[in-house]
Amino acid sequence: MLGQAPPERADAARNRQKIIECAERMLAECGGHQLSLDEVARVAGVGVGTVYRRFGDRAGLLFALVEDSERRFQESFMTGPPPLGPGTGPSSSLSPGAGAEVDPQARVAAFMHALLDHQAGLEKLLLLLEKSSPDARFSGPYPLYHTHLATLLAKARPGADPHFLADALLSSAAVTLVTFLRTRRALTLDQIKSRFTDLVLSICAGPPLPAEEPTAQPPR
Q1: What is the pTM of this model?
Q2: pLDDT category, 97, cuts 50, 70, 90?
Q3: CATH class for domain 10-62?
């Protein structure tokens, strides 16, 4: 989702904005149960085919509703200031040495905290998105989150499987689970962030792991 939107005709841009504003208004007034593409097209006064060609399905429309917020979040961890973004930063408990490159462990913790804040601001939309498509959690921005975390974890815990650890951390931050922790476990967002700091420390604080031996091939 990061980057510039593809160019489009002025009338197509107007229709897109009209559809998004209509969907936002329907969500605010009626909740998500009436947010079908057919109904959005009817209320927006555009052709049903226009909506389907532009967004594909309900999940595509919901992704469009979070696009601006998602782009700002992605920019913050890809190019923003440390410890969330790259570059150099002041010393801290997780990043010793003023002016040194930010410890990847510090960036993992900062990313998880920022992700929780980002999702909290879009909670209702993200819950609808997961209900709309069984694969929604793993589409959209998920591959970028995974690649970002796996890159940092490979530096923070050499020898471990960074791809598995990235998936494990992202699964722990799933909006459905975080909503459960806030409503059923009565944890505040700050308390959940503190638990994630402990989780990141426990993942990254261990000694470097030896490289896995290649699996022996059975004799032919």
Answers
A1: 0.77
A2: very low
A3: mainly alpha
Can you tell me the distance from the alpha carbon of 108 to that of 204, in angstroms, rounded to the nearest whole number?
A: 9
Burial 119-142 (b: 16+ CB within 10 A, else e): beebeebbebbbebbeebbeebbe
Domain at 69-204, CATH class: mainly alpha
pLDDT tens digit string along 170-186?
A: 999 999 999 999 999 99
Residue 7: CB atoms within 10 A of its CB come to: 7
Own/partner long-range contacts of 37-43 (Cβ < 8 Å, ≥24 apart): 37/61
Domain(s) labelled CATH 1.10.10.60 in the chain stretch across 10-62
Instruction: Give percent of the chain with pLDDT exceeding 90.
Output: 45
Contact 118, 201 (CB under 8 A): no
CA 119, CA 175: separation in Å to the nearest integer?
7
